[in-house]
Amino acid sequence: MNSPNKVAVVTGAGTGIGKAAAVALLRDGYRVVLAGRRKQPLDQAAADAGPSGARAQVVPTDVSDPQSVRALFARTKDAFGRLDLLFNNAGVGAPGILLEELSYEQWKSVVDINLTGAFLCTQEAFKLMKGQDPRGGRIINNGSISAHVPRPNSAPYTATKHAITGLTRSTSLDGRKYDIACGQIDIGNAATEMAARMATGVPQANGSVAVEPLMDVDHVASAVLYMASLPLDANIQFITVMATKMPFIGRG
After folding, report:
1. Considering 104, 157, 178, 226, which one is annotated as catalytic?
2. What are the Cα distances from residue 159, in Å, to 114, 156, 166?
3. pTM of the entire structure?
4. Do 214 and 190 form a contact (C-beta atoms < 8 A)?
5. Element holding 241 (H helix, E strand)
6. Mean pLDDT, all residues of the chain
7. Mean pLDDT throughout 226-231?
8. d(CA 132, CA 178)
9. Fewer CB atoms inside 10 Å of the end CB: C or N, the chain?
């Protein structure tokens, strides 16, 4: 199927990486369901796609809530009849405080959104993709550089992103029989609202604070678009897209 006939769901689509990916997919011809907790940023993302935004559906969604996730995929099926791509992008972090000072509620919020949310969306995507004609589809998980190495005081976020790698591998294996491909994009220092603090200095492993280089978020959107463009008999299992000079190689 070519892009104008394909349908995508993007979670966390109102800002940052999710917005950039959703806009890129819309401009490439996809029909895109934009999911996120707040309607206004989702509406703005669709508007920022220009005329292509007419192919967007905005569905306010809490990915940590099973009922809300079921409603998202039911709306997708009702609107477009199928699903070809899920970009599991929604994610949050906890405050950068000492591990021993994190509350249970702070830990649980990150796990519920970053990990359980991705699982719930994957589960609903499987149900749609395995029964449609043509069968199958693709799932792309946003893993982050934190799927490899932590930043100081980031236990909840880092733990969930390591877990996303396990979910990606299990999804890739369990999806084979349904022609569902799954890959992961690990992103480092894209210039988004979440990463804006990098430009003013962030804690390093040696206890210092340093400014870190950023890259244009559109490079991430281009990588997602390329992963999505592959036929289902080909897959990018893992890809890392990062600011060239960020302290990842040699971190710590």
Report:
1. 157
2. 10, 5, 11
3. 0.95
4. yes
5. strand 238-242
6. 95
7. 97
8. 10
9. C
Query: What's the CA gap between 140 and 202, in Å, rounded?
Result: 28
Where would I find the H helices in the chain?
A: 16-27, 39-48, 66-80, 104-110, 117-129, 155-174, 217-229
Residue 124 Cα to chain centre, angstroms = 16
Q: Give the closest residue to 184 by CA, choosing from 164, 212, 156.
A: 164
Determine the pLDDT at residue 200. Answer: 87
Question: Would you state the torsion angle of the CA atoms of residues 227, 220, 62, 156, taken in this order, to the nearest 10 degrees?
Answer: 110
38 within 8 A of 63, measured Cβ to Cβ: no
DSSP 14-64: TSHHHHHHHHHHHHTT-EEEEEES-HHHHHHHHHHTGGGGGGEEEEE--TT
Split at pLDDT 50, 70, 90, the class of 5 is: confident
User: Closest Cα partner for 56 from 87, 117, 10?
Assistant: 10
Is residue 157 annotated as part of the catalytic site, yes or no? yes
Q: What's the rounded Cα separation, in Å, for the pair 64 and 62?
A: 5
Q: What is the pLDDT of residues 191-221, one digit of tens each?
A: 888 777 888 899 888 889 999 999 999 999 9
The mean per-residue pLDDT over the stretch 126-146 comes to 97
Cβ proximity of 18 and 41 under 8 Å: no
Over residues 131-147, mean pLDDT: 96
Residues 223, 166: contact at Cβ < 8 Å? no
Kind of pairing, strands 202-203 and 209-210?
antiparallel
* Total residues found in the chain within this entry: 252
